[in-house]
Amino acid sequence: MSFYECYNAYKDFDFNKFWRELTPQDIAGILTKDNISVWEYLALLSETAESLLEDMAKKAHKLTRQHFGPTILLYTPLYLSNYCVNRCSYCGYNAANKIRRKTLTIQEVEQEAQAISSQGLRHILILTGESKYHAPLDYIMDCIHVLRKYFSSISIEIYPLDTEEYRQVIAAGVDGLTIYQEVYDEGVYDDIHLSGPKKNYRFRLEAPERACEAKMRSVNIGALLGLNDWRKEAFFTGLHAKYLQDRYLDTEISVSVPRLRPHAGSFQPNAKVTDKNVVQYMLALRLFMPRLGITVSTRERAEFRDNILRLGVTKMSAGSCTKVGGHTLEEAGEEQFAVSDTRSVEEIRVMLLQNGYDPVFKDWHPLTEDVIKGEENAGGNCAENF
After folding, report:
1. How far is the C-alpha of 371 from the C-alpha of 369, rounded, in Å?
2. Are the beta carbons of 355 and 113 closer than 8 angstroms?
3. What is the largest CA-CA distance in the chain?
4. Which of 47, 298, 306, 377 has the most CB atoms around its CB within 10 Å?
C-alpha cells in the first residue's frame, strides 16, 4: 500500500455535506481532546470552525511550545538552475515561458555559498527546475560536495528521484527533501500539468515515501494553495503527512503552506486563499499533528509572517532570492516567483528576538567519522569509567 491507495479511499467523499452538518458545539468538543482523528481534523478545516479560531490558536500555541520550545529554524534557498522540461500552467519556470535560463557553474555555486554562509546561515535548500539534461544528478552531487564545506544541513527541492537515487544523494551529504505535490486532486493535477514528466501524478505523489525508505532525515511536503479548494488540499496534505509520520518514525516530517505568487506567465489562481484561511489551515495541522514541523516561506508578507509566529510555525526562510545566482551574479537567471518578505537575514533574526524567539541557524550536523573520532578523544572509552 502507498499513499495513493489512501488518497483513493477519500477522493470521492462528499466533503461539503460533511462540513454543512457540523455545529460550533462539534468543534468545541474536538478542542477538548488530546488526540484528534482524521475526521476531526477535517472538521477543523470547515467554515464552522472559523468561529473558534481563537480557541484553536491558544491550543496550537501551547502544543508548539510544548514540542518545539520558543525556537524558529532559519534557512534560505539557493537556486542552481531554472531550466525545465515541464509545462506547468502556474509556474514561472514553465518550459514555454520566454525567460532568461541559467545553470550555475561549480565555481558560481561556491561563490553563492560563500555569500549565503557569511550571513550566518547553516541550513540551505538547493533548487532546480525539472531538467535532467541541464541539472543531471551528477551535477547536483558535485554541487553538494562544494556546499558541504559551508553548510551543516543541505536539503534538495528538485525533480522526483527513485529510491536508489535518493540513497545516492543522502550518501553525498543531503539530509532533507522538499517536494510539493502542488495539488492533490488528480483531475486538477492533470489539467494544469500540460506536458512533461511532472504529469506523472503518482510518481510525484510517492516521492516523499521513496525518500523516507532511503532514510532521508527530514521530508517536507505541501500543496500550492490557490490551485484548488484549499480546505480539501489541506485535508489531503495533512493526511499525507500523518501517513508518513506514522510509518517512518526516524524521519522528521514537515508541511509547508505556500500560496501562489506572481510569476512569468498569465495563469491566475483557481481558488482564493485569504490570510484567515492560511491561519486556520496551520492551526488545524498543529492540533492534528503536534510534532509536525510547519514551514512558512518568504512568499508571505513580512507583517503576516510576524503575526503568525505563535500559531505553530517552526521553520522560516530568510534572505530569500528565487533567481539563479541572485546572491552574487550580475547576470542572474529569471526568478521563479516574486518574493514577498524581502527582509535580510539579520532583520529576521532581530524580529524573532524581539518576539521572544530564538533564531536557530544550525540545529543539526551529520555524524561524520571526524566528529565521531573527536567525541571519542574528548570522552574516552565509556567502559573504562566503570
Report:
1. 5
2. no
3. 71
4. 298
**Helix, strand, coil % (nearest 5) of the chain?**
45, 15, 40
Residues 103, 197: Cα–Cα separation, whole Å: 20
Q: How confident is the model over 173-186, as pLDDT tens digits?
A: 999 999 999 999 99
Mean pLDDT of 125-130: 96
Residue 378, all three cell numbers? 574528548
C-alpha cell read off for 25: 458545539
The β-bridge relationship of strands 193-195 and 87-88 is: antiparallel
Query: CA-CA distance, 210 to 145, in Å (whole number)?
Result: 23
pLDDT of residue 263: 66
315-358 pLDDT per residue, tens: 999 988 888 998 888 776 666 667 889 999 999 999 999 999 99
Q: Which residues of 216-235 are buried (b: 16+ CB within 10 A; e: fewer)?
A: bbbbbbbbbbbbbbbbbbbb
- pLDDT tens-digit series, residues 39-48: 999 999 999 9
Residue at grid coordinates 525539472? 130
Residue 339 has phi, psi (to 5 degrees) of: -70, 140
Give the mean model confidence (pLDDT) for residues 109-120.
95
- Provide the 8-state DSSP code for 249: T
